[in-house]
Design brief:
Length: about 500
């Protein structure tokens, strides 16, 4: 593998201002490689390094670590789509989709996503690099990204750590990146996973209104919508309920009449019950009639595999954490939060929530050694700084979260802009049914729904860890990009 190293400091003063002297503020490492995608050879460069975040006065506030993959056998970047990729947390590095979903390398794991040794990476034959270039961006305090502060000064947390602040400085950074890489003419996309769903909804509006950068598409992968998630209100309990059906079906805990049917045959039933029966019942609170309450509890039990009496003890409001503990309690197992196909072992079978998330510790098994090896040995970015899988970004400011409405505004003002949502049916943290609900809430008028699409997969939060869904999800993303980047005439209604 050939590589070119070019690193520099803008000014000596910048170097001494860095929070960690081992991370340069502005540096680039380029490596060259080839890969076979969908049976065809693709030549590409991987440009990795750090690029500053500038404020309005040109002062450097931080340096962000990124990796940019671009084909070298394509001359016309004006028609070559560019994907700008983020993960979530908030506080998560852009590692998950980088080396497990859309990038040219994926983890060495088994076909269902479980870690195997020796840890490492391999070529991704399904990557969308054949149809689009991709940059993976690590927000402040994730990966190798760090704030830049003067000696004896504290980090300005309000500048980085909040729904609005995050999107604002990232839009500034992307403006610089697109300018440096000469990609202003390219069709552009932003993709975000988990909290990244909220991030890209807000970022689409920030890019459009502050940077005058108009997108062709927004992709939300297992999106976390904080207008509903963890609120504990009636909508939260009802909208997430169909996930219980999916998880119970997977673990064969449903009644025979449901268990014998295919998953996709029973989920519409559960979704219909959740919105048209459960939600109105929960809205009544303590004023619900006992007969109705018992009937709803019976139906909840039927669609979730949880005993009716347990559901009644929760007044029809069964938290997801309790479900993860309860579903397989009799067998001494718990199920995963982010992917309920995974099983855990608790100290005690009693209790109201699992001791740990078995899927997350499984993923960290394979991701952490792989990304550290990949960056240092393959991408040739050398540093002693710790790669933050999860970094210190809290407290995160969720106030004035208008991301849904801002996504609607961005779509209304930009006739080219389309939305794709991808979710796993066994994701108990950001459920597929909540993702659909968010789509409806983005556009309550229904005028934009023909520009929105949903794709579901028989896996969890990181649906792409399952080999079958790695191929399917990339194909769905590829089709979305190819369709939305076509020249369809003037941007007008």
């Amino acid at each position: 593998m050939k590589y070119i190293l070019s690193s520099f400091c803008l000014l000596f003063s910048i170097c001494i201002m860095a929070q960690d002297m081992r991370i340069p503020v502005d540096t680039t490492v380029v490596t060259s490689n080839t890969i076979t995608i969908k049976g065809k050879k693709v030549s590409y460069n991987a440009q990795t390094g750090t690029q500053p975040v500038f404020d309005a006065n040109g002062t450097i506030k931080a340096t962000l670590f990124y990796t940019y993959y671009y084909r070298t056998d394509v001359n016309n970047t004006a028609t070559r789509p560019l994907i700008m990729s983020f993960n979530g947390g908030p506080g998560s590095a852009s590692v998950w989709m980088h080396i497990a979903y859309t990038g040219p390398k994926v983890l060495k794991i088994d076909d269902e996503g479980n870690p195997i040794q020796p840890y490492g990476i391999k070529d991704n034959p399904y990557s969308v690099l054949d149809v689009a270039d991709i940059v993976f961006v690590n927000p402040v305090n994730t990966g190798y990204s760090r704030p830049v502060v003067k000696k004896d000064e504290k980090v300005d947390k309000k500048y980085f750590f909040g729904v609005n602040a995050d999107a604002k400085y990232l839009s500034d950074w992307l403006n610089t990146f697109v300018t440096r890489t000469n990609r202003w003419r390219s069709p552009k996309y932003i993709i975000g996973e988990s909290y990244g769903g909220t991030r890209v909804m807000q970022l689409a509006y920030e890019l459009q209104t502050r940077q005058w950068m108009y997108l062709n598409g927004v992709i939300m992968v297992s999106p976390a919508d904080y207008k509903i998630i963890r609120t504990g209100n009636s909508e939260d309990y009802a909208v997430n309920f169909p996930y219980y059906t999916a998880a119970a079906w997977y673990h064969k805990q449903l009644p025979k009449t449901l268990q014998e049917k295919d998953l996709l045959a029973i989920l519409p039933e559960s979704e219909n019950f959740a919105i048209n029966k459960l939600l109105p019942a929960l809205a009544k609170g303590g004023y619900i009639e006992e007969t109705e309450k018992n009937k709803i509890a019976e139906q909840m039990s039927y669609y979730s595999g949880i005993d009716k009496e347990v559901i009644l003890q929760h007044n029809l409001e069964m938290p997801k954490a309790y479900f993860w503990k309860e579903l397989l309690r009799k067998s001494g197992k718990t199920i995963g939060r982010l992917d309920s196909r995974y099983l855990g072992l608790d100290r005690k079978d009693t209790g109201t929530r699992p001791d740990y998330s078995p899927e997350l510790v499984s993923w960290l098994h394979s991701f952490t050694p792989a990304i550290n090896y990949y960056i240092q040995n393959v991408l040739k970015f050398k540093t002693d700084v710790k790669y933050n899988m999860f970094g210190p970004v809290h407290p995160w400011d969720f106030s004035n979260n208008n991301s849904r409405e801002n996504m609607r505004k961005a779509m209304a003002e930009n006739p080219y802009l389309q939305l794709l949502v991808q979710s796993g049916y066994y994701d108990g943290a950001t459920t597929f049914s909540a993702a659909k609900y968010t789509m409806g809430k983005i556009d309550p008028s229904g005028k934009l729904k023909d520009r929105m699409s949903f794709k579901g997969y028989r896996s969890g939060h990181m649906m792409y860890l399952r080999k079958v869904d790695l191929e399917k999800a990339n194909d769905d993303l590829r089709a979305f990009i190819q369709k939305s980047s076509k020249n369809v005439g003037a941007a007008k209604y």
